[in-house]
Structure formats: C-alpha cells, structure tokens
Design a protein that fits this description.
44% helix; Alkaline Phosphatase, subunit A; 626 residues; alpha/beta; disordered C terminus; six-stranded mixed beta sheet; 16 strands; 11% strand; 2 domains; 23 helices; three-stranded mixed beta sheet; globular
C-alpha cells in the first residue's frame, strides 16, 4: 500500500520523462560550476550540497511541469518546445550573469537592458556558453518530439504540488522554523566545521532559486525611494545609532587649516580594484604599476577603502550621496548629493566620460546627481582632433584625461569640479586597440604572474592586468602633465579612486593575491599643490566616506543625513555598510553583523532598517523669510 501511494505521488518514471531533464541538467551543472568559481562558494559543506540538490529538484520539477502542461492541455508539441527553449535560455542568462557580474538576473540589469551594449560582454567563454545553450535546446526539442506520448502521461497535479512544497521549504527556513542542514548533519552523524558566513546562505538561495522565480522577481520588484524625514528625528534613534556605531546625526570635525580648493578633479577609474596594483598586492610584480607604487602615491593611499556598491551607477550613487541604500538612491532624487552642495557653493560641475551620454541613461543619472555639464562620446566625436580616438567603449582614456586638463586650463580662476569616467579598464574586456597612441609593452613579469586556468580565464586575467598596466601609464603621464602645465597648484585637489571594484568573474582566480568576495578594496588617494593632513590610512573606510571627506577638506559642515565620516577626522566612527540581496551587513571594529531587511529580528534591527530606508534632511529656510 505504501509503495502504491509513493508511486502515485512521484512523476512518471519512464525513461522518456527523465531524458527530458538531461539538457537542463547540463546547464544546471554549468550554473553551479560557474557560481562556485565566481562567488567562492564553500564546496566542502553540507549546506552547499543541500542547495545543489534542492536547486536541481526545483528546476527539473518546474521544467517537467511546463512541458507536461504544454503537450497535455495545448495538445501540440511546439508550445512545449518554446517553453523548453525559454526555460533553458533563462538558465543560460543566469550563468552568463554569474560569470560576468557575480549575480543572477536582478531588477537593476533589467532597468538598464535597453541602454546597454551587451555585445561588449561577449567573451570567448560567453560564446562557448551560447553554443552549449543551442545544443541543449536542440536536444530538448528532440526529446519532446520523440517522447510526446510519455510526457502526456505525467501527473501534472503531483508536479505542481511538489513545486509548492519546494517553494515553501525555503520560506519556512527563512523564518528559522526548520533547518535542513542541521537535520542532514544529524542524520549522517557528522559535524559541520568551519565558520559559515550568512551571505553564503543568501547566495546559495539566490543560485538555487528557480529561473522563473528569478525572472518574475526581476520584472515585478519595484524599488521604493528613500522616505524623507527631518534630521531632528535622528534624536529618537540615538540608541540604535550608538549600538551600530553609525555616524548619522550632527557632527563637528577639527578644522584642517587648508587653503580653499577651487579646482577639484576626481579620477574614478572603471573597475579598479586596489589588489590589481603593486605594492598593495605584493604577489604582483612592481612593473605592473610604477605610478601607483611611487612614493608620492603610496604615502597618500588609503589602503582599506571598501566598495559598497557596483557597477558604476550604484557605486557613484553611494559615493556622492553617502548613503548605502543603492536601490532607493537609483529610484528617487539625490537630495543630499555632494555635487548639489558644491554647486550651491558656486562650483561649475562637469562629468567627462568616454562612453556615450545615453549609455545606461548616464546623462539623466548624472544630472540627477546635480552635475551641470555631462560630456560623452557624442561631444568628443564633434572634435576632429578627438574623433579618431573614439572607438569601442568610447574615447580612449589618455585623450579623455587630456580633455580634463584642457578644461582646467581654460577655467583658471574659477571654481570647478570635474568627475572623470574612463572605460579602458572596463570589465570584462579592457581596451586593446589604441590607434596612434603608443604604450610600452606589457612586461613579461606581468603576464607570467597569471596562474594557468581553465578555458579562457587566464587569457582574460592577462588582459585585465595588461589594462591595469596601461592605465597606470596613462595616469602617471596625466599627473606629470598637470605639474608641467602648472595645473596642480595649491587651489587644486586631485582624487584618485574607482567607481567600484572589478565584478566577480572566474578570471580573478587566476590573478595571484586577489581575494574572493563581492565587495573589495578600492584605491583612494588625494594629491594637491599644498600639503594635506596626515591620517590613519589603514583603518576601515568605505565609499560612504567620500562625500564627507570632500566637505571636510573644503571646511564645510557635514549633512546629518550622511552615513560616512571624513577619512581625515580624528573622531570618526562610521562603519562599512553593505547590502547583499536581503542581507544588510554593518562592519565596524573588525566585526561584522548582518540582519534581514525584510524580517528584522529585534527592535534594534528594525530601527536600523528604518534608518536604511530613510533620508534625514535639515529643513530649508523659507525663500521669503527675512
């Protein structure tokens, strides 16, 4: 009787049914191998294999249910074939996203889908993935046509019931009502050893989720703007602010005694991780970055400056707003943008970027931040001297940097703020064509430092480091030209940093000394014609600290709604705050605590979420007030 009941609740076990799962299983293995390499998943744990098994059953069940419904109720083969190709395509998309960006499909990538040139991301590995997808699609089509009658016998009700149960298991686990890992460990009589990171669980859930659910979440998720609250409300949150070591609220820094900076240039290099540079990664040869490794730069570099968000727009939204809630920043206005404060102080604000002004709706994004002038490839193509150097991602970096220096030179005596967005180091393929521009050859020691890997990963790693070597050359040349043209005077401040770290990809494993992790350290160095104050350059800083630091250097008050602190402040307390899916992590004093944003488990965590979802602003004086 038990055997009969079990048989009734299991799918039709004929060979023709299970062969349907073969093409999907090929992509499923591809997915998890990619996720393991890109995300640094902990292979030797029960939890990892628990989610692999769960993900396979979940994926296959939804796949078979779709095929069975198509042939049974539409009474035709072609709907099943269309569904199979669509389902396999979603898996291939998630594999490609994991390889190139370290995450599956998210709402952000759908938002930028129509304004992104995705062909720029098509490496040799992506073309291999495309080939595997086509072969799997053809295999699926053959199986559907060959075993249509067998598919018609599948009990759809049972598959749908199993789908609901599989979905419910994760929901129950999220509420800590059941812990499958603990059950499996006790059943096997084994002990789980080692330190487990909460973000690993969140990552495993993300990879193991059904591709249809991932797509639905990306399509239906609506990001909410930050809730504007008066800065005075922060007083009621003082206990939470103190417990989490947040910098929110009124603060005063010791004056730095600097002469005014009327000319500020920020070189926010694309995808520049600090660990691409020597001596911040001593596993790489000194020849890769002689400029960044020079005494002037090493004595100015903050070596523990962490990325909070990526790619470019999220990273810069955090950088200029000093707020960690990227999704809300990209949805609403930028009321506390540093750029708007500078504009109010009389600065003329510019963005100079290599790529098109319409790429990712960049012009609208930067104008929303408060920039008055946004100059991109459309502008450079109108200049006959620059037009030959516009190719691929846009204007070549060296020419872009020259344009920034020319803009400085033509605005002598004026207050000006310039943000420079380059693209020669853009992931996943740095620029290789430079027209008539000459570069020294990439040193053999740089190429030899790359670890031999599988597929094209080592070739991509060589390309990445070659791009870093050329960037170092361009940046060193630019700073030298600034000094030669007397553009780096006492009233000039130059910031060397990055928009975000290099996105997680298999190639990074082939670069010696490069650490695993989604958010990595960035360069941050300040140069000027006048001496700058000393500071502890090894303590933890983050992109949240950029805007407060600029205001501190200018002797301006810090908005109470900013989450960061000046890197030159002696009484700083700001932690590093990052969001990864539903996990909000606060790191301070060498320890990190994570909470669930959707389901905080304490009053303190709930208050932290309120702070995270709010923007605290000071009331503006009435225009007609005396």
């Amino acid at each position: 009787m038990i055997k009969s009941e079990l048989k009734r609740w299991t799918p039709n076990s004929k060979l023709g049914v299970w062969l349907q799962a073969l093409p999907l299983s090929v992509l499923f293995v591809f997915l998890w191998v990619t996720a393991h390499d890109a995300l640094g998943l902990m292979l030797g744990t029960v939890k990892f294999w628990e989610y692999v098994l769960y993900g396979w059953v979940y994926s296959v069940t939804a796949y078979l249910a779709g095929l069975a419904i198509s042939v049974k109720y539409f009474k035709a083969r072609w709907p099943a074939v269309v569904y199979a190709w669509f389902y396999l395509f979603l898996n291939a998309v998630n594999i490609g996203m994991l390889y190139s960006t370290g995450t599956v499909l998210t709402p952000y990538f759908l938002r930028i889908a129509d304004s992104t040139n995705w062909l720029m991301y098509c490496t040799e590995w992506i073309w291999i993935l495309a080939g595997v997808f086509v072969v799997c699609g053809l295999m699926a089509s053959y199986c559907i046509y060959k075993f249509t009658d067998t598919l018609k016998q599948v009990r759809v009700r049972d598959l749908l019931t199993l789908l609901i149960l599989l979905w419910a298991i994760v929901q129950v686990s999220k509420h800590n009502l059941i812990h499958p890992t603990t059950i499996l460990i006790k059943a096997a009589g084994q002990r789980e050893v080692g330190v487990w990171q909460p973000t690993q669980t969140e990552t495993l859930r993300q990879v193991a989720d059904n591709p249809l659910i991932i797509l639905g979440r990306a399509l239906l998720t609506r990001w909410q703007p930050l809730k504007i609250r008066p800065a005075g409300d922060l007083a009621a949150m003082s206990d939470t602010i103190r417990e989490w070591h947040l910098a929110l609220g009124p603060r005063q820094y010791q004056p730095l005694g600097l002469k005014p900076f009327n000319r500020i240039v920020v070189f926010a290099t694309e995808s520049l991780s600090l660990k691409f540079l020597w001596p911040y990664n001593t596993n790489l040869p000194p020849e890769i970055s002689p400029f960044y490794g020079s005494t002037d730069i090493t004595s100015s570099m903050f070596v523990n400056y962490k990325c909070v968000a990526l790619p470019t727009q999220p990273g810069l939204a955090v950088t200029y707003n000093s707020h960690p809630n990227v999704r809300s920043l990209l949805t609403g206005g930028a009321d506390l943008s540093l750029v708007k404060f500078l504009k109010a102080q009389g600065y003329e604000t510019y963005v100079l970027m290599s790529c098109s002004e319409t790429f990712l709706n960049n012009k609208r994004f930067f104008i929303n931040l408060g920039f008055q002038h946004v100059l991109g490839a459309e502008t450079w193509e109108k200049d006959p001297k620059l037009r030959p150097f516009v190719e691929g991602w846009g204007l070549m970096d060296r020419m872009l940097y020259d344009a920034a220096l020319n803009l400085l030179a033509t605005n002598q005596g004026k207050k000006i703020f310039i943000h420079v967005c380059n693209t020669d180091t853009h992931s996943p393929k740095p620029r290789k064509f430079f027209g008539s521009l000459e570069y020294p050859p990439v040193p053999d020691s740089v190429q030899k430092s790359v670890v031999a890997g599988m597929g094209d990963a080592d070739d991509q790693a060589c390309d990445i480091l070659g791009g870093i070597f050329r960037h170092d050359y361009d940046m060193g040349l630019t700073i030298r030209r600034m000094r030669e043209r007397q553009l780096l005077g006492e009233d000039t401040l130059v910031v060397l940093t990055a928009d975000h770290n290099f996105p997680m990809t298999r190639a990074l494993d082939e670069i010696p000394g490069y650490p695993k992790g989604f958010f990595r350290n960035l360069p941050l160095a300040f140069l000027s014609g006048q001496p700058l104050p000393d500071a502890d350059r090894k303590v933890l800083h983050s992109q949240l600290d950029f805007a407060p630091t600029i205001m501190h250097l200018l002797g301006q008050p810090i908005p109470p709604g900013w989450w960061g602190d000046s890197v030159f402040a002696t009484n700083r307390s700001a932690p590093d705050v990052t969001r990864f899916n539903d996990q909000l992590t606060v790191e301070s004093g060498g320890t990190a605590k994570s909470i669930s944003i959707s389901e905080p488990n304490s009053e303190s965590a709930s208050n932290l979420v309120v702070l995270f979802q709010s923007l605290y602003v000071e009331p503006r004086p009435l225009e007609n007030s005396p």
